[in-house]
Amino acid sequence: MNFMSEEESASLVSHEMAFAAAREAMIAAAGDAVIFPAVIAHGSSPTNRISIKSASTPDFTGLKVGSFWPGNPERGLPRHNSAILLFDQDVGRVEWVIEGGKVNAYRTAAADAVTADALARPDASVLTIFGVGNQALFECVAIARIRPIEQVLVVARDAAKGTAFANALAAEGLAARCVDAREGCERADIVVTATPSRAPLFDAHWIRPGTHVASMGSDAAGKQELPPALFDRAALFCDLPSQAVVMGDLQHFGGDRSAIVAIGDVLLGRRPGRVSPDQITLFDSSGIALQDLTIARRLVAARG
């Protein structure tokens, strides 16, 4: 068995690598891959959460174990951790164990970037981000790589954290300022939510025509970032429909579920993406194991 530490995987990963891996994963999800139901568990304390996601293709198989320990910052440790297991398909042994906490942040942001590249207007220049946690910075940088982002509007519950985050964006070369939720929605070309919310973060009518909206934080039953009324105004996309309606924001969608389109089908040309400049597009990302497995294989290749 081979092992790659958190430090080594973090030194190898890049936004370019993650984007290519996420795109491959979305296409595979719409093809001959098998994605198994996610297992959501918790530690001895129910607030400490564990998720297990697995998948198989004709070429590779494996799983990702993710954890969220909210008390870790008090110990000087990150809340999120991740480990990816790649299996030797001939004999069933674990061939690689890859620690990937930082890799997971790149991979999650890359899924958003791949979808924004397919669905957001080409001239989208104002990005609004809800949330200022670990994932938010990766989201903004990844989207700025594929769209001409001139300004990032930051919506944060804590003003001091919002200001600190805006400064962090400035260090990445992105002009940013803090706004309230309504202004953030009404001025945005792209809205990304990256929070642990269990209630809608904004009103549906604040989203203007032509906006691309991505929910990145809803990855468990009971979570919710988007107002259900927005579903009636938008074209609906996700990474995996069967999973999104169980643990993504689309679990709160009460309409015809056949209207939900896997983004892989758009990338393959089977289904249309954005069909007009005024259309609202909505992407629900609950995260699939294929994203972890494809980036893990690229990490192994980069290691040489």
Automatic annotation (TrEMBL):
It comes from Sphingomonas tagetis. SUPFAM superfamilies: NAD(P)-binding Rossmann-fold domains (SSF51735). This is Ornithine cyclodeaminase family protein. InterPro entries: NAD(P)-bd_dom_sf, ODC_Mu_crystall, ODC_N. It comes from the Bacteria. GO terms for cellular component: cytoplasm.
